[in-house]
Structures are given as structure tokens and as C-alpha cells.
Design a protein that fits this description.
With 117 residues, this protein is mostly beta strands. The chain is built from no helices and 11 strands. The strands form 2 sheets. Strands 2, 4, 5, 6, 9, 10 and 11 form a 7-stranded mixed sheet that branches. Strands 1-3-8-7 form a 4-stranded antiparallel sheet, with no helix packed on it. It is globular. The N and C termini lie far apart (39 Å). The mean pLDDT is 94.
Length: 117
């Protein structure tokens, strides 16, 4: 399993921007999917954005046009650029890396994002 460490969360006013980073302990080029999920207390963890190795990113409808996911295999890091933030974007953001061929499904510890109105 790879260790994932998120950073970049914080408190921001509505309309502002944040950039989340997910640093992996090892090479990420082999991971088929890397994504960001969001969770609030008492609710399920929902997909925000996912990027397939060599493929087109996919986004939740609620963040399309505002968030951008990218991966830098050379730096073993995945990013989530969040613009035009809304209060409903508030939550703990988790980084995820999947490699189905090896049954690897790794999660980071999460980073809190709070958007004030």
C-alpha cells in the first residue's frame, strides 16, 4: 500500500480558492485511478474528482467548471485546484489511489476545507 498525505486545506470565504495536494510515499504512475473525495459528518464519502492514468478527468456535477484535478507522476503528487468555492464545498477532503490489478485501495488522512458565506 502507498501512503498518502493531503495538505492545503483551510478556511476560505465563498468565492475564494484553495489548492489541495496529495503526496504519495512512492511512485504513482502505476495507479490506474487517483481521486479526491469529500465527506461531512454523518454522511457518506462522495467522489469529487478522479483522474485515470493517461485519461480524461471526471468530476462531480456540483464542481464541474470550478475544480481541476491533475497528477504529476514525476513528483508523486495529485492536486485539486478549487476555485469559486461555495459553502456547500465544505468538508473533509480525502485523497485516494487505486490499483485494481493488485487490489490496492489507499486513502489519506484527510484535510479539512471550510468555506464561509
Amino acid at each position: 500500500q502507498v501512503q498518502l498525505v493531503e495538505s492545503g486545506g483551510g478556511l476560505v470565504q465563498a468565492g475564494g480558492s484553495l489548492r489541495l495536494s496529495c503526496a504519495a510515499s512512492g511512485p504513482i504512475f502505476g495507479f490506474n485511478l487517483m481521486g479526491w473525495y469529500r465527506q461531512n459528518p454523518g454522511k457518506q464519502r462522495d467522489l469529487v474528482a478522479v483522474i485515470i492514468n493517461g485519461g480524461v478527468p471526471n468530476y462531480a456535477d456540483s464542481v464541474k467548471g470550478r475544480f481541476t484535478i491533475s497528477r504529476d507522476n514525476a513528483k508523486n503528487t495529485v492536486y485539486l485546484q478549487m476555485n469559486s468555492l461555495k459553502p456547500e464545498d465544505t468538508g473533509v477532503y480525502y485523497c485516494n489511489a487505486k490499483m485494481p490489478a493488485r487490489a490496492i485501495d489507499s486513502w489519506g488522512q484527510g484535510t479539512q476545507v471550510t468555506v464561509s458565506s
